Amino acid sequence: MKNSSDITLTLMGDDFDSYRVTAQTKRGESFVAAHLPGNTPDMTSEQMRAMRDRAHKCGLAVLVE
Known about the structure:
By secondary structure, the protein is of the alpha+beta class. It has helices at about 25-35, 45-55; strands at about 5-10, 20-25, 45, 60-65.
């Protein structure tokens, strides 16, 4: 996937209240490792908004799809 985001939050097709996190850059990988240790689980929309807000405060570019 080619985009300018550090992390991507992807809406899961079969559950419209669930998102998956994907790191796109080394900076994004560091952020995900710090905030979602281990495997990146599916998140609810409320958890996704909190993750997006934290990433923006850290200066990361976030793509929501």
